Amino acid sequence: MKLTDSFAGLDLRAEIDRLRKERNAVILAHYYQKPELQDLADFVGDSLDLSRKAQATDADVIAFCGVRFMAETAKILSPDKIVVLPDMDAGCSLEDSCPPDQFAAFRAAHPDHIALTYINCSTEVKALSDVIVTSSSAETILAQLPRDQKIIFGPDRNLGGYLTRKTGRDMLLWPGVCIVHEAFSETELLKLKAQHPGAPVAAHPECPAVILDHADYVGSTRGILEFANAMPGDTLIVATEPHIIHQMEKAMPVKRFIGAPGADGNCNCNICPYMALNTMEKLYVALRDLTPRIEIEEGLRLKAKKSLDAMLVMASGTVGRGDLGPVAAVPVTGD
User: How many other CB atoms are found less than 10 A from the CB of residue 331?
Assistant: First the structure.
């Protein structure tokens, strides 16, 4: 029997709202979640922004409709709150590409490098990193490091390559990719641009360089939304996971948003299969049973939090150029 069959006749939205109140829960939904999950969430946004908003609430429970590393980040920042993820199999290809033991060995082989690590990674990899970055904060943080400082950037080689091209900083890149952003086709994108002359392209920096080369704007999910709102035209081609278009259409109903195509022009390969694992039914069960629950050993949590804290300090731009401050290299093993 399918999970949906066991809830036939149940008003899931009403039941989720009831449990939200009973559990004193806050529901978070990433921009890449299905529209029905976005529409019932207390907050919709980028992964770190969501975790910080939940941290600022008096909620006892965080239900994170996203992927595992996002829910782990919420637990790192809110250790006293219960954090549930509707489906524990909702992982991330970038996280999968960077196993902690391999990353530790890579760091050990390059002891003169510091590790700037994209937030799309496991708690264990965060604990092995010096500074966590987001797609919106990476350039600001990179600008504060001395030009002669050697840097490992992982796990996303596309984001790292974009930063290298934009800043001229030579970094040692971990070879991970996002399977969603890797699926966009340059050929099909050019066909789409020809069909909509004058329509700008907004792309996430997790896309390969051949896609970013055709973009009028490159930025985070939030940045893409802001660009969509500010652009003078009425049509935008969007090269990121297409569920973000739901927020665009709600905020800007007079504009047209077209998802960039995959290899055959019609496939659903640009829909994140991990994000899609979360459903209304699974969210209901997670709130009802308070499981699957994110648990992180305290010593590991504190090590991971150190790299997140370094990001939050440096993202404000208050750390002086050349002052490594909180980013002095952490040991690969031991305390």
Answer: 11
